[in-house]
Amino acid sequence: MKKLMIFLLTLVLISSCQRFNNADKKANHAERIVLISKQYTEIIHALGAEKDVVAVDLSSIYPEKVKKLPTVGYHRALSIEGLLAAKPTLIMHDGINSLGPDHIVKQIMDLEIPMKTFHTKAKDVASTKALIHEIANYFHKEAAADSLCKILDNQINEARKNATKFTEKPRVLVVHFGRASNVYLVMSNGGAVGKMIAWAGAEMAVPDTSGMQHLSAEIISEYNPDVILLTDYGYDRLGSDEKIKELPGISSTAAALNNRIYRVNECDMVYLGPRSGAITLALQKLIHQR
Fold it and tell me: Class assignment of domain 163-288?
């Protein structure tokens, strides 16, 4: 173990994990914070509390400027070299079970780098605001949190008010692609996206609440969604609306026949945060347009 520690510390001097070859240009940090949570990353930046953030995980892609920071790998595929290169004094993550692989997590814990997890889990509007306030209290950004939460409330209320004017609730299928042997990875009703679709005045085509799941082309066809939201990864791989509409299982749906397949950002769909009201309003326009 002692030899391992010496080897790992040596890597700090010779290694770095960078995104787009961007080195850590920040100097004289009072704290050196590594964020391993895209939700925390967005909230901390929205609060204006990012001063001491020196690295993030690869899932942290919002706001745009975080792409200039060095990265430490994906949260479930962390790089010990990248982490040590960031020389963190604090690691923030949203739960030890979301980190991996296990042997890297053990190495991090053996190095005794302080770690911080916020207790609140954002499952609805109230708990999202509570998480924003909890993070704000840690960084002494209470006034910024009040402003963010007020905006979130106003936007969600606007979406809900708009929803009362619609006479129909379109059935929406959210696809995160991953088509292999005509099997699709889709989002179900249990997560953040289910909340936003409901606030927008629609309903999820997949009623199951167990999270993401793989569905065959036949089942997709049977669900026959009115609208399909395809995340950026899958949409960009296919490259055009016409190619998407030709996919097995999708080609026969009302969404394909009526040209109601739209590109959305995967990051916007998987957690609730300060932009969830604005995202809901944008989804509402997509879903209900004719």
Answer: alpha beta
